[in-house]
Amino acid sequence: MSSQPSLKTIAVLGTLDSKGDEHAYVAGIIRDKGHRVLLIDVGSLEPPKVAPDITREEVAAAGGVDLPALQLRRIAERV
Fold first, then answer.
1. What pLDDT shows up at residue 17?
2. How far apart are the C-alpha atoms of 44 and 46, rounded to whole Å?
3. Residue 78 and which of 1, 3, 44, 62 are 20 to 30 A apart at CA?
4. CA–CA dist 17, 23 (Å, integer)
5. CA pair distance 57, 42, nearest whole angstrom
6. Using an 8 Å Cβ cutoff, are 32 and 47 in contact?
């Protein structure tokens, strides 16, 4: 049995358009502890502030959601 702790992959999921800096900070702490980070973007309006490992488009497609249609609906609600 190895005395070294096993490397973990920790998912950080959030809206990287509005809270990208905060999620990048958390991801940095996780990396500093020696773990891998899987950064997942679930934002829907503005472009992400940091590059995700899994994009909002991939998340939407996995959930069967038409992201461009959702974005247009959200914009229309603001008007």
1. 96
2. 7
3. 62
4. 10
5. 8
6. no
pTM here is 0.84
Token pair, residue 55, equals 């994009």
- Amino acid residing at 33: K
**Both tokens assigned to 70:** 């959702």
Tokens 């940095």 sit on residue: 28
39 to 34, 54, 75: CA distances (angstroms): 15, 6, 25
Residues β-bridged to residue 54: 40
pLDDT of residue 6: 76
Query: What are the two backbone dihedrals, phi and then psi, of residue 10, each rounded to the nearest 5 degrees?
Result: -115, 125
- CA dist., res. 59 & res. 53, Å (int): 11
CA 64 to chain centre: 18
